[in-house]
Amino acid sequence: MATAAEDGMVLLDFWVSPFGQRCRIALAEKGVDYEYKEENLSDKSPLLLKMNPIHKKIPVLIHHGKPICESLIIVQYIDEIWSNNPLLPSDPYERAKARFWADFVDKKVYECGTRLWKLKGEAREEDRKDMIKILKLLEGELGDKKYFGGETFGFVDVALVPFTAWFHTYEICGNFSIEKECPKLVAWAKRCMERESVSKSLHDSHKVHEFVGYLKRLFGLE
Amino acid sequence: MAAAGDHEVKLLGFWASPFVMRVSIALNLKSVGYERLDEVLGSKSEVLLKSNPVYKRIPVLIHEGKPICESMIIVEYVDEVWAGMGPSIVPSDPYDRAIARFWATYIDDKLASAIWIILGKLEGNKEEAVEQIAAMLPLLEDRFKNCSRGKDFFGGDTIGYLDIALGCYLGWIRAVEEIVGVKLLDEKKTPLLVGWSERFCVDGAVMNVMPRADDLVELSKVM
């Protein structure tokens, strides 16, 4: 079996990044071997700067020396190269829906979540309401399904599940309970954590909260 | 596969929207007949609110009663559903596909907001916005060199995903050039892009759906 170096799969990443975790989960779901390289984001490596000169951000997947950037683009690439355990459905309409909701997570969850913890002192009432609205919309899309992908773990699940490690942080910053507002979403998160690809990629939510505390002190927000 | 009848495919749009234009071009490339339902500026129709409750915005493609939203997602959908008709829009190689998707995302992140800032529709520094566009274009010139491999379009012989992603902004780029009196697409700085833009605008799939810069200038005054 080819080693990661021979197959040329390298993932430039940062331990707590939900975007990096998406890629780790996708690679694990496909059973693909790769070399993980932890970046120091305050001292970015020459490799990262060379492989992602436009954004200089992780994650970057390097396959046979060629870089792929942007987490959802990386996940789709992984899904297209390795056809086992497909993450995107085969039906074009279902694919379009999956892409839509993954894109929704990108546009809404991260940005609202960042506002929730970045704000000095108490998070604004507005942002809490926004986050609840966003999570309820996602819960509505999940419905009574096992996963967003239906019976099988799929693209939207991969897109959203890393953010569940940030739920605890959102709850503390926003002073609300996600389980109370979106019980089905929390149940879905627990089901996802039963998958090895997810449990091995995500960090404990208290560790995430500690990290956010460090960031807040760094930015003089606490 | 039978060609779709007009009633099966509807496009909720607006003549000036670059995002709607992307879908029109994709449908035209596939020779798919469709019904255009244009929104009225300043109001949102019942159909729109019902078919895109999350964002409440155009474009929405309604195919056999089912809505598909977000312009580049719709373009991929069109390419997949009508795969046997017309040219392929999305590159067939997974790496080329990833690159095309990356640049389409980059264009949407940087170009759209810069244009709206220059037009005064979004808060921001207009001079910086002009500089931002000026900084983007040489990158896209380089990208064109890499993607086109000497051919007419980013997609090669025919219009493809990245042509559609960028080309839809050409009307507004020309409008901005007129309004601000700045040349953004300059044949001295980005000759390949200028050549590409001329070919793009006269392509059969684009010609009838590309708004005239003059009309966009007038529209920007009332928006």
Task: Walk me through this protein's architecture.
The complex is a heterodimer of chains A (222) and B (223). In chain A, strand 1, helix 2 (18-30) and strand 2 form a beta-alpha-beta unit. The longest helix of chain A has 27 residues, at 92-118. Chain A is α+β, with helices and mostly antiparallel strands and 222 residues long. Chain A contains 12 helices and 4 strands. Chain B has 223 residues and is α+β, with helices and mostly antiparallel strands. Chain B is 52% helix and 8% strand. Chain B contains 9 helices and 4 strands; from the N terminus they run E-H-E-H-E-E-H-H-H-H-H-H-H. In chain B, strand 1 (9-13), helix 1 (18-29) and strand 2 (35-38) form a beta-alpha-beta unit. The relative contact order of chain B is 0.13. Classes of the chains: A alpha+beta (222), B alpha+beta (223). Chains A and B meet through strand 4, helix 4 and helix 5 of A and strand 4, helix 3 and helix 4 of B.
Largest sheet: spatial strand order of chain B:
2-1-3-4
Structural class assignment of chain A: alpha+beta
Task: Enumerate how many helices of chain B there are, as a single number.
Answer: 9
Distance between the termini of chain B: 42 Å
| Pattern of helices and strands of chain A | HEHEHEEHHHHHHHHH
Low-confidence stretches of chain B: none
Q: Radius of gyration of chain A, Cα only, in angstroms? A: 17 Å
